[in-house]
Design brief:
164 residues; alpha+beta; Aminopeptidase; globular
Amino acid sequence: MSDTTIYYLQMLAESELSSKPAVSGLTITETKIKEYRFNRFLYSLVGEQWQWFDKLKESDESWKAYSERDNLRTWVAYYEGAIAGYFELEIDQQREVEIKYFGLTSAFIGKGFGGYLLSYAIQQAWQTCKAKRIWVHTCSLDHPSALANYQARGFTLYHQEIEG
């Protein structure tokens, strides 16, 4: 098995955001009623193609504890009634917001949705979550454009490591 590079990126001010314009027909909704089974479904739906398997082995209790916390918020993107993608934002005590999970479903990759969905996620972190800092990590197993999308939106790389 080859080594995996993990990239840690951050944004320190809302003014650093270089947003993409809205995509016509794409609606993004926060899931205000928390339901761990839905978060697990989204994780599986979006992450399967990127080898997001580690959390799928967790128990219902673990998923419930993770996804139904007050400091975790989830948004889902829909296009013509279909789930196009989702993101989760985790807010810590210092108002540092981590984009825990972010991605598109396979049917919507390559259609220009990723830049806008990420822009929207960042806007929600700054405005709705009142972030003082936003950070995210991605890796070399993710979509080949993932790192470039984060950087194009204004994130800067602050750390990287290799896992063997």
